[in-house]
Amino acid sequence: MPHVRTLFLSDLHLGMKGAQAERVLDFLRHYDADRWILVGDILDGWALARGWHWPQAHNDVIQKLLRKVRAGAEMVYVPGNHDGAARQFVGLSFGGIEVRRDLIHETADGRRLLVLHGDEFDGAVRFAPWLSKLGARAYEAALRANTVVAAVRQRLGYPYWSLAAYLKGRTKHAVQYMAEFEGAVARRAMASGVDGIVCGHIHRPELRAFASGRGEVLYANCGDWVESCTALAEMHDGTLELIRWGEPAAALARGDGHANALPVLAA
Questions:
Q1: DSSP H or E segment with residue 32
Q2: How far apart are CA 261 and CA 267, in angstroms?
Q3: Which tens digit of pLDDT belongs to each residue from 196-206?
Q4: Residue 144 class from Cβ within 10 Å (0-12 exposed, 13-18 middle, 19+ buried)?
């Protein structure tokens, strides 16, 4: 089992029908870390408020995370907008999981990373929450279509592929929105005087450097477990890597190591 220093997970959206809980479970079975940071939207309170959906796999994910804590791992939970009700518990600890509004994570090589969910940089969430919730419902409809596509591809022996992510990536306004979001988050890191920022929210995994007046600032987005099925990992030497969990069990069985690893960014 690969063991890393820190694992960042965001946007599991447990409670939503499009959540890839089985893939999360598979990832949790194959990876371990000294520190786990849950970067928001772990639960989807918006979806649960419209209708209860909580299959066994969603419960198993929660139990698996709690077992990581009982085994000695540190775990921090930074709520997002879909699980924003948990923000009233900031500063408290439940089952060994500390709830924080944000935090500074220091990597093994001494870099300081600001960790937050990222919804504060989303104008629709801040100023028109009704529009954001309407968009969430349309998004869930796209994910239902995505489930059918994924099932057909699996039967044909093809790896997981997200129709929702493909459509979003081809939409001009969505691409512009994500670019503006990334720029705003990077500017927050620059203003905070940290070396980088880790977030989630927009369901787009990314790991790259932005130029600033004092050099470069790191932008890292964990991605999600609805479309991309990605996690951000910090290795024991402080390097960061995005891991895309496509067909992990088969890859590990072949001895391929990380399944579909995305680029590594060092100091």
A1: strand 32-38
A2: 18
A3: 999 999 999 99
A4: exposed
The length of the chain in residues reads 267
Q: In what order do the strands lie in the sheet with 215-221?
A: 103-106, 112-115, 196-199, 215-221, 206-212
Lowest mean pLDDT across 122-126, 163-167, 253-257: 253-257
Cβ–Cβ under 8 Å, residues 220 and 206: yes
pLDDT tens track for 89-100: 999 999 999 999
Give the C-alpha separation, 80 to 90, whole Å: 12
Residue 103, judged by CB atoms within 10 A of its CB (0-12, 13-18, 19+), counts as middle
Element (H, E) at 181: helix 172-192
Who contacts 170 (Cβ-Cβ below 8 Å, separation ≥6)?
A: none
